[in-house]
Amino acid sequence: MKQVEAGNRTVPPQHTGSKHNTEYAITCPTVEACIQRFNIAKERLLEVNHWHQLGGSLSANFTLTDRQGRVLYHKAEEGDHIRIDLPGPGSKNGNGYDWVEIEKIEDRSTRSGNCAYVALRVRPSGNPRQLQGKVAHFYDPEATSSFVIERVGNSIKASVYGRNEKPNEQPDDLLDKVRNWMVALTAAVGFSKPQWKALVKGLLK
User: Fold this and answer.
1) Which of 16, 61, 139, 161 would bridge 85 by S-S if both were Cys, CB 3.0 to 4.6 A apart?
2) By the 8 A CB rule, do 91 and 138 touch?
3) pLDDT tens per residue, range 123-163
4) pLDDT tops 50 at residue 82
């Protein structure tokens, strides 16, 4: 399936660390059915608080919050944060969680209506409950994760693109540094792949 050209701008270029692509595509019997499926998938993408239900039993728990770390129940917006509860020890800087900020959301279609995409990009951030500014995530702030849903005709694809993924070495706490290296390493060798695969399939099911 050919990507919508404008959608490529959502995913930053890879220039350091590791990267990954996780994709899942389906073909619908008609364009009308595909448009309907795309709209459902878009709603699911923006309902961050339900991602863990799509990702299955091995998924982390994702919670949408505002800039002060208070839980939100609306659809994701630029500037919101996502609190991530991973299995195992959490980040001390993050009060037990990893944190990212939603820095970009795109929702576009071509004039012909034959192509459409929606994309959400996140970047590691500080803990919004604290003012110290240290990034509270196992990746450093150059890393991004881009969640993209694209439709071309009667085909639709959901994807997660990780770029510039390196361990976060900002924490002063030695245990946090060790923890970040361990989590980043396991993610780099593919242990996060099943979660993202379950999520992209869940978006389109």
Assistant:
1) 61
2) yes
3) 999 999 887 678 999 999 999 999 999 999 999 999 999 99
4) yes
Whether 180 shows a pLDDT value over 50: the answer reads yes
Residues 76 and 64 sit within 8 Å (Cβ to Cβ): yes
131: β partners: none
Name the fold adopted by 5-204.
Alpha-D-Glucose-1,6-Bisphosphate; Chain A, domain 4 (3.30.530)
* CA distances (Å), origin 60, targets 82, 186, 190: 12, 14, 15
What count of Cα atoms within 13 Å lies in the side-chain half-sphere of residue 121? 18
pLDDT (0 to 100) of residue 7: 44
Which alpha helices (DSSP H) does 48-159 contain, by range?
51-55
- Round the CA-based radius of gyration of the chain to a whole number and report it: 17
